[in-house]
Automatic annotation (TrEMBL):
Homodimer. SUPFAM superfamilies: D-aminoacid aminotransferase-like PLP-dependent enzymes (SSF56752). This is Aminodeoxychorismate lyase. Keywords: Folate biosynthesis, Lyase, Pyridoxal phosphate. Its cofactor is pyridoxal 5'-phosphate. Pathway: Cofactor biosynthesis; tetrahydrofolate biosynthesis; 4-aminobenzoate from chorismate: step 2/2. It catalyses: 4-amino-4-deoxychorismate = 4-aminobenzoate + pyruvate + H(+). Belongs to the class-IV pyridoxal-phosphate-dependent aminotransferase family. Its EC number is 4.1.3.38. GO terms for molecular function: 4-amino-4-deoxychorismate lyase activity. InterPro entries: Aminodeoxychorismate_lyase_IV, Aminotrans_IV, Aminotransferase-like, BCAT-like_C, BCAT-like_N, Class-IV_PLP-Dep_Aminotrnsfr. It comes from Pseudomonas shirazensis. It is an enzyme of class 4 (lyase).
Length: 273
């Protein structure tokens, strides 16, 4: 694994970095194939939105250039871009004139079992609940303790992902994926204005759906809605789409249906271009 800090090879971060002290920053996890970062512009758009919401000043063209150079050296793998507010002394208040830090880490592509995409996965129903915070909703910020706790709830190989709800029991997402369901031929995904991560692949699929003649609905969903689903699938910007076969909280099975397979091909194309 190789890493850069502010465009230069480095392996250590300043102990006063606000990302380390307070989780004060954002990150993007970007698949890299043949030296090219997948869905780069969408990742940069989300990063720009997050920086705007958190009032972190960032030079986006510089970040793009560094990502392209870093990916060309990585070849095939995953580039994790972390942007923190920078270094400052003790205290929550950010220092005046503090420069944001850009951290890039490269790692191999994860070797997920082929059966996950080909046949589907089982979801573990997590007890950990996501807190509502509209100011942070949708952002891929560095505060991921909820996901750490949720992922610690299962260790078996039977479940490939976890299903996470908010404090009111609304279905939100997977631990590291976004969730979609199909009901009455309509593609539905949870509303993420209170909590959750607005994934890049989720956004890409929502943008592609109208041109494919697929009706889309973004709304609050409950476990009872999943019980009425004809198809359920997960997505993210590294593995694409996994059909969901069943969930430990529900005594139902879902097929890897035609709409899931259609969008799975779309996701595969998006990741390869």
């Amino acid at each position: 694994m190789h890493s850069w800090i502010d465009g230069q090879p480095a392996t250590a971060v300043n102990l006063h970095n606000r990302g380390l002290a307070y989780g004060d920053g954002l990150f993007e996890t970007i698949a890299v194939r043949a030296g090219k970062p997948s869905l780069l512009e969408l990742h940069l758009q989300r990063l720009a939105l997050g920086c705007q919401r958190l009032a972190i000043s960032i030079d986006l063209p510089l970040v793009r250039d560094e990502l392209l150079r870093f990916a060309s050296q990585l070849g095939d793998g995953v580039a994790k871009l972390i942007v923190t507010r920078g270094d400052s002394q003790r205290g929550y208040a950010p220092g005046v004139g503090v420069a944001a830090r850009r951290i890039l880490q490269g790692s191999p592509l994860p070797q997920y079992p082929a059966v996950n995409a080909e046949q589907g996965v089982r979801l573990f129903a997590c007890q950990t609940r996501l807190a509502e915070q509209p100011l942070l909703a949708g952002l891929k910020h560095l505060n991921r303790l909820e996901q750490v706790l949720a992922r610690g709830e299962w260790q078996d190989a039977e479940h490939a992902e976890g299903l996470v709800c908010d404090s009111h029991g609304r279905v939100i997402e997977g631990v590291y994926s976004n969730l979609f369901m199909v009901r009455g031929g309509v593609l539905q995904t949870p509303e993420l204005s209170r909590c959750g991560v607005a994934g890049v692949m989720r956004g890409a699929l929502l943008a592609q759906a109208p041109a494919l003649g697929i009706s889309v609905q973004v709304s609050d969903l409950a476990l009872a809605d999943l019980e009425q689903a004809e198809e359920v699938f997960l997505c993210n910007s590294v593995y694409g789409i996994w059909p969901v076969l069943e969930c430990s909280a529900l005594k139902l099975n879902w097929p890897a249906g035609p709409l899931t397979r259609k969008l799975q091909a779309v996701a595969r194309t998006l990741l390869d271009t």
